[in-house]
């Protein structure tokens, strides 16, 4: 078997020699050139398994090389060599199609990890393994043009290392999209570490993200690995990234730029090889304008944006999703497979689903508990009624902003039920809404409701809510 080949394009002799020696020790065959013209000639004569190019060259730029390789050698990963701290160049290179970037002075260990990842990707493409990987059809349900486009984009994003910002309302499946990008890429064998940025107390964030050393603060009884170290060699998914406080945004930006973290109490930084995927249901660009989210961090994590459409924009997928959810519920419970009556199916397809797929799952689970036998009728769905004003408000939201789920109207007090039942219904509705919005995190739901966790636990028991 012939050695894998690498093309190095850099006008600095020291860099060419460093890369040639380092890559040669990895049993790679290296050709090094110093200009765009020489790179064109080399690429015209043979194909390479991997390319490195400097940003500035005597007769052109690295972008020209990236564009040339993307057009004529699309299966060849290319990494940009940038000056230390030149974030703009790195982001620009990733947007142009670069696989990843390396900062000067070159960290040898980081370089070796990048090379292994890139060569694994190239080998998969040649052998056809990349196309054999699951495309997410079994989990990312839907045949609408919007979802076909999402699946196609996931396949493209999986092939490079650029940070991806996944935009979409609550409940559309942003974490699933992130998992599929990870699973279809060269990091699939590495860890996928999801973290809800809104669920970590502010005072614990630095320790959670970067780890700490024994004795670095009261209660630090041992060394602890942070989320970045846990995701080393894989993917770190920052869900609800808009919830990060400003002081953590600064530290996160540095960790992403330098590809290294400093645990609390440590003297030296620890290199980490992590791909960053992030998501939020909020309009991140609007938060930048309002000064609530750092523009430089937004620029860094939003190299490529993938929008996941809300369910109301793909109503044709509701029937497929419903069938899938009902099969899952039947498998989970071991009971009969639920069947939607035609009127119930029409009601689901007409409903806006402000909570999207997650709300559909909750509606069907509740309906299965309420229906007689295995047939679900409209009344079993218990869909909330939306007023014309609510429809208008939902339609006027800025792109990427999630509308609030309207609570189901509680029936007015009656002679039979009385005021106590009326208040209980109001409480039940508010609690269920808070649980759904917080993904059934009871601590977060209690905070939304403005009550203590203990009080919420009491009310859940009192109202018979699981």
TrEMBL record:
<dbReference type="InterPro" id="IPR011006">
    <property type="entry name" value="CheY-like_superfamily"/>
</dbReference>
<dbReference type="GO" id="GO:0006355">
    <property type="term" value="P:regulation of DNA-templated transcription"/>
</dbReference>
<dbReference type="InterPro" id="IPR027417">
    <property type="entry name" value="P-loop_NTPase"/>
</dbReference>
<dbReference type="GO" id="GO:0005524">
    <property type="term" value="F:ATP binding"/>
</dbReference>
<keyword id="KW-0547">Nucleotide-binding</keyword>
<dbReference type="Pfam" id="PF25601">
    <property type="entry name" value="AAA_lid_14"/>
</dbReference>
<keyword id="KW-0805">Transcription regulation</keyword>
<dbReference type="InterPro" id="IPR025944">
    <property type="entry name" value="Sigma_54_int_dom_CS"/>
</dbReference>
<dbReference type="InterPro" id="IPR058031">
    <property type="entry name" value="AAA_lid_NorR"/>
</dbReference>
<dbReference type="InterPro" id="IPR025943">
    <property type="entry name" value="Sigma_54_int_dom_ATP-bd_2"/>
</dbReference>
<dbReference type="InterPro" id="IPR003593">
    <property type="entry name" value="AAA+_ATPase"/>
</dbReference>
<dbReference type="Pfam" id="PF00158">
    <property type="entry name" value="Sigma54_activat"/>
</dbReference>
<dbReference type="InterPro" id="IPR001789">
    <property type="entry name" value="Sig_transdc_resp-reg_receiver"/>
</dbReference>
<feature type="domain" description="Sigma-54 factor interaction">
    <location>
        <begin position="140"/>
        <end position="369"/>
    </location>
</feature>
<dbReference type="GO" id="GO:0043565">
    <property type="term" value="F:sequence-specific DNA binding"/>
</dbReference>
<protein>
    <submittedName>
        <fullName>Sigma-54-dependent Fis family transcriptional regulator</fullName>
    </submittedName>
</protein>
<dbReference type="GO" id="GO:0000160">
    <property type="term" value="P:phosphorelay signal transduction system"/>
</dbReference>
<feature type="compositionally biased region" description="Pro residues">
    <location>
        <begin position="404"/>
        <end position="414"/>
    </location>
</feature>
<dbReference type="InterPro" id="IPR009057">
    <property type="entry name" value="Homeodomain-like_sf"/>
</dbReference>
<dbReference type="InterPro" id="IPR002197">
    <property type="entry name" value="HTH_Fis"/>
</dbReference>
<keyword id="KW-0804">Transcription</keyword>
<dbReference type="Pfam" id="PF00072">
    <property type="entry name" value="Response_reg"/>
</dbReference>
<feature type="region of interest" description="Disordered">
    <location>
        <begin position="387"/>
        <end position="420"/>
    </location>
</feature>
<keyword id="KW-0597">Phosphoprotein</keyword>
<feature type="modified residue" description="4-aspartylphosphate">
    <location>
        <position position="54"/>
    </location>
</feature>
<dbReference type="InterPro" id="IPR025662">
    <property type="entry name" value="Sigma_54_int_dom_ATP-bd_1"/>
</dbReference>
<keyword id="KW-0067">ATP-binding</keyword>
<keyword id="KW-0238">DNA-binding</keyword>
<feature type="domain" description="Response regulatory">
    <location>
        <begin position="5"/>
        <end position="119"/>
    </location>
</feature>
<dbReference type="InterPro" id="IPR002078">
    <property type="entry name" value="Sigma_54_int"/>
</dbReference>
<dbReference type="Pfam" id="PF02954">
    <property type="entry name" value="HTH_8"/>
</dbReference>
